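Standup notes
- HV: blocked on the assembly model, inputs below
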Amino acid sequence: MSHGISPLAPKSVPHLPPVAGVRLATAAAGLRYRDRTDVMLALFDAGTAVAGTLTRSKCPSAPVDWCRARLRGGKARALVVNSGNANAFTGKNGRDAAKLTAELAAAAAGCKPGEVFLASTGVIGEPLKASAFDGVMGALVAGAHPDRWLDAARAIMTTDTFPKVATASARLGSASVIINGIAKGAGMIAPDMATMLAFVFTDAPITAAALQTLLNRNVDDTFNAVTVDGDTSTSDTLLAFATGAARARGAPRIASASDPRLKQFRVGLNAVLASLAEQIARDGEGARKLVEIKVEGAVSKRSARRIALSIANSPLVKTAIAGEDANWGRVVMAVGKAGEPADRDRLSIWFGGIRVAHRGERDPAYDEAAVAAAMKKPEILLKVALGLGRGRDRVLTCDLTKDYIAINGDYRS
Amino acid sequence: MSHGISPLAPKSVPHLPPVAGVRLATAAAGLRYRDRTDVMLALFDAGTAVAGTLTRSKCPSAPVDWCRARLRGGKARALVVNSGNANAFTGKNGRDAAKLTAELAAAAAGCKPGEVFLASTGVIGEPLKASAFDGVMGALVAGAHPDRWLDAARAIMTTDTFPKVATASARLGSASVIINGIAKGAGMIAPDMATMLAFVFTDAPITAAALQTLLNRNVDDTFNAVTVDGDTSTSDTLLAFATGAARARGAPRIASASDPRLKQFRVGLNAVLASLAEQIARDGEGARKLVEIKVEGAVSKRSARRIALSIANSPLVKTAIAGEDANWGRVVMAVGKAGEPADRDRLSIWFGGIRVAHRGERDPAYDEAAVAAAMKKPEILLKVALGLGRGRDRVLTCDLTKDYIAINGDYRS
């Protein structure tokens, strides 16, 4: 199956500069694919702090279990990510495969297995032959280089149609620090393939605890505000690594997420996470429209989020947008089923900035031709005002097309 | 758009006998369709009790509001149902249209407007021109007849591909009573059209309160256990009418749902509701497979229901079944995201009675050819054992095909 590059792919790919203390390499271990790389290794200098957020699935993959246990240590020397096999629902074999992968990487990199972080994406339920890494680990370590960002993003792709990278720089004390990110994920779960994976790398000297707090604050409005199909992966993983190498250039050591010197860094980190999250929505399986859903006037932000997700995950809303139909009746339905406070007679709805429904009825001034033109655009803004309170939130999603069914429903080849 | 009759339609349609005290009529009021009936009227003899369950949507239609207020009275003399227009999200116009419809029916039938029950299904957000009923109400009352069950079921169809009827009889004291049911609904919301509607009619002498208790007990494992797309309509309505006419034939008057004389009636009522609910799943938009999902070994029935619904509403599970792919990895994903207690390493999964995963790993004895053959059948049983407790439940759904997208996503004609 070839589905080409998403029409919503970013027009240009930013260049990612080196991050002091990080080296990258990729290889083809032959796990599932032919003629492409399927494993990436990142090596970190001693003293690198790590933080992360992992899937809330009750049936997580073996690498997720591995990372959850190792995050407590807060120290990282290596990251190994493979595509082609998710090492999920693989029982004791899976735990052994994760352990072996970490041991092989540790031996080659000269660190402890507990300082190696892991992520896997691909088929669920198939045993991962971690011994395949044995043949490539030495070459990966030997060939690791500060300038392999796009290669790394390519090696972790599954049904992604383009590699996802983002970068920002920030002033920290008297130094400039870099924040680079790479990600993959085309559905919350792609066909047979699991997962949204994202990795962030910085040379800022930040403790693991402060980095964790920053991630927690940022993930809710970036990665957690994106949905393709409402299906949560067994393997969703976001890890952030801070080498601290910028300290040599005069950056201060930061031990608190509230440190005022982090102001620019916080903005940069949020921008990187938000860009990667948006790129995932832009590469949603079969997507032809990027849809931003804004809900305001809810009783709380939490309530606004739930209503926005109810709209974003409604198959009827998503198919209507695929059909370029400003079907606000289905939006009313999705608001109504969210289980959150809503008053039909105060509800207003906009498509592409044009109000189509007002206070519980079709807007009398609604110009069907203008709305039809707005619905033809590749990016659709859908706004709902509840008129109850001051809670507001926003989520990103994409439309639901026949290609989603083709990608996920056609017979296995 | 013509999509033919669902391949899952029942092979034969049962004959529905008259229910003493009920007369039916249909007409073409020209609300939206050409060359078909779009309104049905049921007339009930004096003394008819009514009970019902209505959508939990926070944005219900005007007829739902009307019925909710009138159910308190517990008495019914007429039911008016139209297709083509849902009278939902129509503001004050909608309330006025519902009132006018009830007044027109009451005047023609010689009863009070508060004894008239209403349901509407069709486009959301378009004003319902209730004055259109003025021209047909007299003829409807004059032509009402005990033998119009299939006509009635046809008049309330929207995107349904076949009329949905069911019947049962039960011994009540020394008399035999009839329980007839009709329903419509092809998605929880069909394209532009709202709604699951179901109406049950019996000549048993049962008080409104007892009938309400019986409905509440039965609806959870019948209509509430069916999902097509997880989208809850603004208009879902189930009403039950008991004329009491069987009292003249010696049936005792029943004032408690726990009355032991109701034993057969309870079985019959459950059979009628279960049959109608299954027919709705069989007519799911674009459906090619009827899917029964059984979850056992959960910590409670409620937990089993939530896990079953998480599986049933997962686009990735539904597209896999459309592709005849026993993709248990996606079932693991759906169990994991349900948010209910689950232990990956105790989980077992069966497709078509064949165990494909056992205790958190692929079943070593799993015969791929046998499973492939099972997946080709039009009815798929998917069983999940959690191994935690004794909670079990079952839901019905259908697969997700390109036809669902075509029905709901193609440009409005």
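- HV (later): unblocked. The longest helix of chain A spans residues 263-282. Chain A touches chain B through 73 residues (CB under 8 Å).
- Next: hand off to the docking folks.
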